[in-house]
Amino acid sequence: PVFAGMNGSAIENFSCVIYNIFLMNCTWQAGRHAPTDTQYFLYWQKSREDNQMECEIYIKYENSRNMGCIFQNVSIGTEKAYFLVNGSSRDSLIQFYDEYIDLYKIEKLMPPSNITVNCDETKNDCIIQWQRPQISHSNKNKCFKYEINIKYK
């Protein structure tokens, strides 16, 4: 059955973030009713054409239980990625958790770099320039809006 396993044994509060262009960090909490020996395993699939991959580097917390994962060399595609966390226990069956996520929505962008300000006091104007941060997905030019807050001294 699809929902086989003890109620409340599936993970909770699953979330992922992509940072520094190609690193993805996912975390979760153990199910409220999961036995203490439950171990969780994360798999993800970038698109339907790609193979499912298991977590590369698990983050362990209490009881050496896997409670997070770090993926390296992540690239963002146009399809929603599929995430699956299943678990195992000696005592009972563990429910799985799955979710589809648009990866571009979880990318944490770095601030702009190489900011320069050149002011001309005679013309009473300033030119402010910067480089947009690097991002890993395709809509590179449609994503950015900047707000400049100028305070006079």
From TrEMBL:
Record Pfam families: IL6Ra-bind
Location in the cell: Membrane
PROSITE patterns, A to Z: HEMATOPO_REC_S_F2
GO cellular component: external side of plasma membrane
Membrane topology of this protein: Single-pass type I membrane protein
Superkingdom of this protein's organism: Eukaryota
UniProt key word Transmembrane: yes
InterPro entries listed in its UniProt record: FN3_sf (IPR036116), Ig-like_fold (IPR013783), Short_hematopoietin_rcpt_2_CS (IPR003532), TypeI_recpt_CBD (IPR015321)
Keywords: Glycoprotein, Membrane, Receptor, Signal, Transmembrane, Transmembrane helix
GO molecular function, one term: cytokine receptor activity
Domain Type I cytokine receptor cytokine-binding per the UniProt entry, residue ranges: 13-106
Protein name as it appears in the record: CSF2R factor
Protein source organism: Catharus fuscescens (Veery)
